[in-house]
Amino acid sequence: MSASAPRLTELQRMLTGITERLAHELAAPGARAPAWSETQWGVARAVAAVHGVSGLLAQRLRWQGPEAWRAFLETQHQQVAQRQLRIEVLLARIGARARAQAIALVGLKGTALLGLGLYQPGERPMADIDLLVDGSQEASAHELLVGLGFSPGAVTWRHRTFAEPSAAGTVAQFGEHSGNPLKIELHRQVCERLPLHPVDITMQVLAAPARAGLQPYPSRAGLLLHLLLHAAGAMVDRSARLLHLNDIARLTGAMEAADWDELWALGARCAPPGLWWAFPPLALTERYFRCVPAAVLRRLAQQCRWPLRQTAQRRRLTEVSLSYLWVSAFPGIEWSSSLGEATAYAMRRLRPRAETLELRRALVHSQPLLSDGEWARTSQGRRILRWLSARQPRQQALQPVQAALALPRAKSP
User: Fold this and answer.
1) How far is CA 205 from CA 81, 115, 214, 386, 409, in A?
2) 201 FRET partner, CA 20 to 30 A, in 40, 62, 242, 413?
3) Residue-wise pLDDT tens digits, 48-58
4) Which domains does the chain have, with CATH numbers?
């Protein structure tokens, strides 16, 4: 980091204070700018970028802050808006080809939220386009995307990745840039491991009967179900974003009693049945946005296991996001359903499976700045020894701060 960068312990204090302040400002904007130092304003840019809310803050904040902060937010808002235009053109092409080839696709998360008009241009970034396809049509969808010029990339248990050639645009390593190559993630299931056993909501997200083309979720309740499960999975990995909570808040604000009734019905048909996992992300959203009906929270709390419920009621965004600087030995272990699962999860963390090690190696090549750098190349034994000797910072959390502090210095208003 640069000479003006703080020590790691001081940086964690900054990340905590700034993340919590920006979260509350996004939910209920205040009238007075924070009295932050130049370094803190630099860290604030990193927090806004990591949490995907730069474009939102550009529109929501009532105060201005230093010149460099204002310029950063305004530029990010413009870049998000320009990239959204590119995405809309691509989605139209995908939809047209899917209809012509009788392939049914569901546009997930950001695609659906923008389609509902819950965000204005420039507010919500989209790094990827997420599409869901029935397994029987996965091969046809693969050919469709390759036919549009996208190259097949990494394959994980979650999805297949397709990337636009990098020659199509620049690659900005910090924040949003309209010219960054587009990426598509093709899913055949909607599933999260919490923390070890999967929760699958694929059948609640796929429209029935399926229609050719690019389709929305069957209902708002189905979209909320996915947003909650996605946020839950991110909380387990300590990669949740303020944008996730804002998505949930905007959607719940548009829901009526019948939508909540449908959510309960969908939860009963999940695999396994129930919505015990939905309480933590909704409780975290309620902490900042005050948007969830009290009766809904009470009902979900009753389904949530006591250890997880107690932890979720205390959690702040910082502690389950990339604003938390440190490598955790057993992140999300409180989500375990039993002592047996907790033990199995701990052993999985101590002795990773071949699939996990292969994914680490792939990330080193595909995302060298965000894959924990040298830490990603370190053997599991050395990782354990280093973690026992001193707290280790996460490169995914540290690199955006390094990039933000390298930007032009802030000037007082």
Assistant:
1) 27, 16, 13, 43, 46
2) 242
3) 999 999 999 99
4) 8-405 (3.30.460.40)
